[in-house]
Specification:
heterodimer; A: Aldehyde Oxidoreductase, domain 3; Aldehyde Oxidoreductase, domain 4; seven-stranded mixed sheet; five-stranded mixed sheet; 26 strands; B: 156 residues; alpha+beta; Ubiquitin-like (UB roll); DNA polymerase, domain 1; 2 domains; 5 strands; 35% helix; globular
Chain lengths: 785, 156
């Protein structure tokens, strides 16, 4: 295409990151700033009878102590994705809870002091009188008769019920199948654990009633809109939201949290800047979690391996209150993916979203799609086992064929979205060139004879990303309470230097680099001449932010379109300068030249200068080449690929070692191969971690027992191998760059590949399914029995 | 309590509360915010610095325990505006994404190469097991450390 797109250009972001110069939220210091510490509930379910703050107030250096009653005028957080008819029972958190807590770690009071140590000391002197209530932490238990009830407006703790597909047709097909496989699949709770926890700083100017709020945010414009329009009831124009350097998010920084609004309310109250930064322990307890599904599947197949039906019923744990987009995750982002890469003719999915006395569950890397992919890819292996067929033969038998695109999955499960393009054999075949399957089966056999248990697992996945067509996902469609287009603005300065601002809000993805590559190539200017700015509602156009693998496919497409507008204007002004008709000139390599006379040319820099000065412009044109574009995608994008995992299970200890991990992904055109590979590496690590190690665990009384980095098993360097990657390229027809999205593919694809591999290794012991995480204890017990 | 230390070649003396952690002291009193805090249980390694030439998690020491010490933080690693080979290797090999773990990871890696200038992949993975990264899956961190080892051997 050009000079930069397709190249592994080194990242613009890195010089400030490798030197420690980058300023994350905790590094920001404002004059006169004071520190807030939140007092959190020790109980998972309790009435707040009284809060005695008198001793805390006496601590020298304390500016004030407040409870929820002091903020009755501040509205609860909004639920912004009311999927499944969550209209009347969206129970969301307040800046501080007033009457009742429904999970441990909810804020009930706040201390503000001159420094953080003082605030922590004072917080420990607050005495909260609770009336303890019975707890329920499992979603399956919560919907049983007699279970403790969390919210009056949600009988049996049911927040929402949602379905897609055709129940009657699917059940009929199950009845006609030669074999039916039934299994319970648990997709355990995960804790996102971005390396930077959450924080916020607020400054308030009483004279103008304006807030400036720094937040650890993946979506500053959305946070501003929700905080102003819903929580404070003030115009958006009265708040500026800035995300400083953000140290990872993986979904957990998409949401508007109570503390972000609390610091704003405090800054308004005391008229001093207020900082709040959570500890890692608070992060585990109070930041959102992900997954937590219990799913029953029934898969019907013919004796030749053709799957004729998939019935899925899922109970999704949403936690004690609803996070910002929680209802959309186990519904739209889950059920609509259940056809995978396969032409299942009958599909049904029913979901219950349930309140329990646990932390809030919302989007975590992949968000619904890993859960769906786990169901589909495990189902394929279970069918193959049942029929005694090879797992790849069953996959090939059921693949959607290349002549079936655009493909509309059965029973309307995608609600009209078609798989726009695909060739599912291609990455599988490429992966099998890198991994000799036949040899492996022989080696596996030999190893078993020597008491070594090897296994291979496949995941021939699809995912939907680059979210999403606004009308499809919005209020009249899937219940997302806004649009989901993205924005880009270009300012071309007098010297021809360019500033791009984007509504995307990167926090590690390298978007600053990727966007600069796109702008530089399209304008024909040096990469060094492009600055990309983001993460600040002042100076960037409204945008929805970074999540759902959308920054390149939606934000990048908006930028591409903005550059086209700049080029069109440059052609008009360039032609005017050359005294030619716009129809007689071309824009190429950063120059406008007369067709057939390349020497008669004006560079984009010369045109930018003329445009900025405005001495002589074509009639009707205004000065400058600045343009803004908004891109609303006509469809999601549909990355796919094949992941292969090889494990060895040690019989005597039950421990699993990942021996080899190989991935061939098709994420469409690639702007920066180095960055794309890096996204896949990180995604795979998180997906492998779900399969083998990580689990957010509560005990019966609702205490988080995996509440620190000592207890929650984030993978370390020595847990993982290096990965072998390759790709196929099927450009996406839904955006002008032909890109798809890559931020989540690794996580979506990898988890079932690992579990399938471990089950393959355990097949001599007659084990067909174990729930994640596949700890040595679980495996050892299974081998023993 | 009075505490003095030499940090990145500059002498500093401060009055601190005894409970002040070394990492807090560096970040809040010296405003060296390149050293990050990622946990409260000394697991993550984001705050790794060099104390008297050894890698230390700065959350595991009180500031007063570093009285008289010679300290290097990420801000002191580059010399005369020239990146340290490890910083350069992380940049060139995409050994970082969000960058939050990076200062600690680089400081730990520099220390590892001091003790083992030519580590195998296994030794690198073992040597960095006290530093968490949530973004990279460690693949490119391992690659970066290997590249730095090669360039430091070639260059030194």
């Amino acid at each position: 295409m050009g000079k930069y797109i397709g190249e592994s250009v080194l990242r613009k972001e890195d010089p400030r990151l490798v030197t420690g110069e980058a300023k994350y939220l905790e590094d920001i210091q404002l004059s006169g700033m004071v520190h807030a510490v939140v007092k959190r509930s020790d109980y998972a379910h309790a009435k707040i009878k009284n809060i005695d703050t008198s001793e805390a107030e006496k601590v020298p250096g304390v500016i004030g102590v407040w409870t929820g009653k002091d903020f009755e005028d501040v509205n609860p957080m909004p639920c912004a994705w009311q999927a499944g008819g969550v209209d009347n029972n969206a129970n969301t958190p307040r800046v501080l809870e007033i009457d009742k807590v429904t999970f441990t770690g909810q804020g009930v009071a706040v201390v503000v002091a001159e420094d953080r140590n003082i605030a922590e000391d004072a917080s420990s002197k607050i005495v909260v009188d609770y009336e303890e209530l019975p707890t329920v932490v499992s979603a399956e238990e919560a919907i049983k008769p007699g279970a403790p009830q969390l919210h009056e407006n949600a009988p049996n703790n049911i927040c929402m019920e949602w379905e897609c597909g055709n129940q009657e047709g699917t059940e009929k097909a199950l009845g006609e199948a030669d074999v039916v496989v039934k299994e319970q699949l648990v997709n355990q709770r995960l804790i996102p654990s971005s390396m930077e926890p959450r924080g916020a700083i607020a400054d308030y100017q009483p004279a103008t009633e304006e807030f400036t709020v720094w937040m650890t945010s993946q979506a500053p414009h959305v946070h501003r809109l929700l905080a102003t329009a819903f929580v404070f009831g003030i115009p958006e124009t009265k708040m500026r939201v800035i995300a400083a350097h953000v140290g990872g998010g993986f979904g957990c920084k998409i949401f508007l949290y109570p503390e972000y609004c609390l610091v704003a309310a405090l800054a308004r109250k005391i008229e001093r800047p207020v900082k709040w930064m959570e500890t890692r322990s608070e992060n585990f307890a109070s930041t959102t979690h992900g997954r937590d599904h219990v799913t029953q599947i029934e898969v019907g197949a013919k004796n030749d391996g053709t799957i004729n039906s998939l019935k899925v019923t899922t109970v999704a744990n949403l936690g004690g209150t609803l996070s910002t987009i929680a209802p959309g995750i186990p519904t739209t982002l889950y059920g609509r993916l259940l056809s995978g890469t396969y032409k299942f003719p009958n599909i049904y999915c029913g979901v219950k979203g349930v309140y329990t006395n646990t932390g809030m569950v919302d989007a975590y890397r992949g968000a619904g799609r890993p859960e769906a992919t786990y169901v589909v890819e495990r189902a394929l292996d279970l069918v193959a086992n049942k029929l005694g067929m090879d797992v790849l033969d069953v996959r090939r038998k059921n693949f959607i064929q290349t002549n079936q695109f655009p493909y509309l999955p059965a029973d309307g499960i995608t609600k009209g979205l078609t798989y726009d393009s695909g060739d599912y054999e291609k990455p599988l075949n490429k992966a099998l060139q890198m991994f000799n399957y036949g040899n492996f089966r022989e080696e596996q056999k030999r190893a078993r004879d020597e008491g070594k248990y090897l296994g291979v697992g496949f995941s021939t996945y699809i995912e939907a990303c680059g979210v999403a067509p606004s009308a499809w996902i919005g209020v009249g469609g899937e219940g997302w309470g806004a649009g989901l287009w993205e924005s880009a603005n270009i300012r071309v300065h007098l010297t021809g230097k360019v500033v791009v601002t984007t509504g995307s809000s990167p926090h590690g993805q390298g978007t600053e680099t990727t966007m600069a590559q796109i702008a530089a190539d399209e304008l024909g200017i040096p990469y060094e001449d492009v600055e990309v700015k983001y993460n600040d509602t002042l100076g960037t156009p409204f945008g929805y932010g970074t999540y759902g693998s959308r920054s390149a496919a939606v934000g990048g497409a908006a930028l591409f379109n903005a550059v086209q507008k700049v080029k069109q204007k440059a052609v008009r002004i360039g032609a005017h300068m050359l005294e030619a008709s716009p129809d007689d000139v071309v824009f190429e390599d950063g120059k406008v030249s007369v067709k057939g006379s390349p020497d008669q040319a004006k560079t984009i820099q010369e045109i930018a200068g003329a445009a900025a000065l405005g001495y002589s412009l074509p009639e009707g044109d205004e000065p400058f080449l600045d343009e803004t574009a908004y891109f609303d995608p006509p469809n999601t994008t549909w990355p796919f690929g094949t992941h292969i995992c090889v494990v060895e299970v040690e019989k005597d200890t039950g421990s699993v070692m990942v021996k080899k991990y190989l991935a061939v992904d098709d994420v469409g055109n690639v702007v920066n191969p180095m960055i794309v590979d890096g996204q896949i590496h990180g995604g795979i690590a998180q997906g492998v971690a779900q399969a083998l190690w990580e689990s957010g665990e509560y005990n019966e009384s609702g205490q988080l027992v995996s509440g620190s980095m000592m207890d929650y098993a984030i993978p370390r360097t020595d847990c993982l191998p290096s990965f072998e990657l390759d790709r196929t390229v099927t450009p996406s027809p839904t955006n002008p760059l032909g890109v798809k999205g890559v931020g989540e593919t690794g996580t979506i694809a990898s988890t079932p590949a690992v579990v399938n591999a471990v089950m393959d290794a355990l097949s001599p012991f007659g084990v067909t399914h174990l729930d994640m995480p596949l700890t040595s204890q679980k495996i050892w017990n299974a081998i023993q029995s | 309590m009075k505490v003095s230390m030499r940090v990145n070649g500059v002498d500093h003396e401060h009055d601190v509360e005894p409970r002040t952690l070394l990492v807090q002291h560096l970040r809040e009193n010296l405003r060296l915010t390149g050293t990050h805090v990622g946990c409260d249980t000394s697991q993550c390694g984001a705050c790794t610095i060099h104390v008297n030439g050894e890698a230390v998690k700065a959350c595991t020491m009180f500031a007063i325990q570093a009285d008289g010490a010679e300290i290097t933080t990420i801000e002191g690693l580059a010399t005369n505006g020239e990146l340290h080979p490890m910083q350069k290797a992380f940049w060139e090999n995409h050994g970082l994404q969000c960058g939050y773990c990076t200062p600690g990871m680089i400081m730990a890696s520099v220390d590892m190469l001091k003790n083992n200038p030519n580590p195998t992949e296994e030794e690198i993975r073992h040597g960095l097991e006290g530093n968490f990264c949530r973004c990279t899956g460690y693949h490119n961190i391992v690659k970066s450390v290997k590249a730095a080892a090669e360039s430091m051997q070639g260059g030194a």
